[in-house]
Amino acid sequence: MLRLLIIGAAILGCCHGQSEVSRRKSRLRVMSPPELEGAYGCASADFGFPQHGGSMTGVVVYPRYNGQACSNFDEYGISLRSRRAGALPVFLLVDRGDCFFATKVRNGQKAGAAAVLVANTKSEPLFAIEGAESRSANKTDDLPDITIPSALITRSLGDSLKKAIDNGNLVTINLDWMESRPYPDERAEYEFWTNSNDECGPKCDDQVDFLKRFKGVAQTLEKKGYTQFTPHYITWYCLESFVLSKQCRSQCINHGRYCAQDPEQGFSKGYDGRDVVIQNLYQICVFKVAKKTGKPWLWWDYVTHFATTCPMKKKMYPHECASRVIRSLGLSQKAVDMCVGDPDADKDHPVLKAEQDAQIGKGTRSDVTMLPTLVINNRQYRGKLEKGAVLRALCTSFQENNEPSVCSNEEDIQTNQCLDNNGGCWQDMAANVTACKDTSTGTVCECPVLQGVKYIGDGYNHCEAPMYVQIETINQDWPQPIKIRNTYTYSSYLTEVVHKAIYNLFSGIFAAHKVF
């Protein structure tokens, strides 16, 4: 059986999640019953996915059995899923105690709840619901599977709600995250905590895919002054007693001050964490140098070009490949190198030291400990890391009718990056041919199609016509041009030596033909 309370409330920002412990209090407004009308405190969880900048209306249900939600509700024959179309979502009210917060929320989600409110059983100040408590007890616990928001409410409010239930009050509620918009009508500020490591499986693949898809949006908003973006990178320091160990030497720079996890989760093969830290530093320095030139959006070109042309799998990850990308974007290699400095210096690095300091939470933003992490207007974004969802979250920073046009029409994205250093793509200036294309997702480097012929190459450093087209060009003075065609075209995998040999062979034949 269920004791049912449908409570009219506006929870203003209370479920805007944080990545770690947040000491931030939020407001909950009860609209009815009349005796409970008013504002109350609540504290958001650091897991789950609230509707950033949106709202949700539903009903609150308090279970007669399994009130602490420490067991699966199926064991009690309780389901919160509506059997009729058009029913409001259910917000589950449960009591604190006997199991982890994450367990309560997960069981509520499995039962069909759209959100969970945890009533404190102690008279104490509110604190954020932490997912870390479950991870410390069970490292296999998969918190990303929790996709509903949750919050902690005070003991007194919980008691009042339960009393209202016993009195048979039925009232609707509304969860509202619109107060996550601290800068209406002004510039939205956001930061993305990321990593240059591309060998961490699907998580890394998804991150790179997001960067590529969101690049056009980010550059358009930045160029028009609607946003201010800052990339960040997490590092950790090695304990002083282990600085000289093999592990710290391979994973850290600056004598153990700045470290990253080994990409392959082992020390015997591939690249080391040290390589990741250095490339992270390159990416930060590219942003700083680009920002000084008035073009901070070039960071998006750099990281996406680097991910495509310099992946670990192709053994192209070292800084030599990074330098090629830097030069292709027209940035000063000297300025970037000066920013990177000496990784072996036994002293603090000002850039990486600032990054470590920035990891510590300030104001409404808690500590950053997970990758990737997106922070919008100093509040942690907990939605899906995809182009549309992040764009909607950014657009909530602006009042209705004053938001950028891209907020209502993604097709209005025009980066025009090909006009600036050819977008870092391949080009043949003599032939006026380029691999750069401006698309709604930003600049794409793709070898062109000319007169029906598809050029071959990576689009960044190299494009060329198929071999049969090159031979036709050589052969253009013949009375009856000879065309060599095959079931496939000779592409860039042919070595330069083979190309020259074929060219010399046919040049000799052509010369002999003209003699006769």
TrEMBL record:
Protein's name in the database? PA domain-containing protein
What is the annotated signal peptide range for this record?
1-17
RNA-binding as UniProt keyword: no
InterPro entries from the xrefs?
PA_dom_sf (IPR046450), PA_domain (IPR003137), VSR_TRX (IPR056858)
Domain PA, residue spans = 57-161
Localization of this protein = Endomembrane system; Membrane
Q: Which GO terms describe its cellular component?
A: endomembrane system; membrane
Where would you find the membrane-spanning parts of this chain?
none
